Amino acid sequence: MTKKYKFPAIAPLSNYFFCNSTDCPVVYFNEQGQTFITNELKVPVYQKDEGLQVPVCYCFNWTRDRILQQMQQTNHSTPESSIRTHIQAGRCGCQVNNPQGSCCLANIRAFI
After folding, report:
1. φ and ψ at 72, to 5 degrees?
2. Distant-in-sequence, close-in-space partners of 71: CB < 8 Å, separation ≥ 6
3. For the CA atoms of the chain, what is the radius of gyration?
4. N or C end of the chain: which has fewer CB within 10 A?
5. DSSP letter at 39?
6. What sections of the chain are H helices per DSSP?
7. Whole-prediction pTM
8. Nearest-CA neighbor of 56 among 34, 90, 79?
9. In the chain, pLDDT over 90 holds for what percent of residues?
10. Measured distance CA(105)–CA(84) in Å, rounded
11. 3-class SS at 30?
12. CB 17 within 8 A of CB 28
């Protein structure tokens, strides 16, 4: 059975902000008090979900699990250099793919 999402209406003239606090269920909010919480989103949010399958990099599918496996297999980490290569080739879409709306490299560095 497909999960159905019930989304609050997005106010098109509103500016939305991202809440990166790990202990808060709010992901997006605006100045009018509208909020979007974690269970209202289609994708898990790195800052809000500690699961191993949650993407740290949404554009290139670097999950916590994939990063840890890669580090165990090679004894070093290559996600950052891989992501940088993709960025230089113009294949990054963090502003759209990453729930925080910005580059994931800081999240990759923090996790590693």
Report:
1. -65, -35
2. 77, 112
3. 16
4. N
5. G
6. 64-74, 79-88, 94-97, 105-111
7. 0.82
8. 79
9. 73
10. 8
11. strand
12. yes
Look at residues 90, 89, 92, 96 and name the one whose alpha carbon lies nearest to residue 60: 92
Amino acid at 36: F
Q: What is the Cα 71 distance to its own chain's centre?
A: 21
Give residues with Cβ within 8 angstroms of 5, minimum separation 6.
Answer: 40, 42
Q: How far apart are CA 99 and CA 96, in angstroms?
A: 7
**What does the block give as tokens for 32?**
């009018």
Q: How many CA atoms lie within 13 A of 43 on its CB side?
A: 17
Task: Map 31-61 to HEC letters.
Answer: CCCCEEEHHHCCCCCCCCCCCCCCEEECCCC
Q: How far is CA 27 from the centre of its chain?
A: 11
Per the structure block, which two tokens stand in for 108? 């990759």
For the segment 29-43, what is each residue's pLDDT rounded down to a tens digit? 999 999 999 999 989
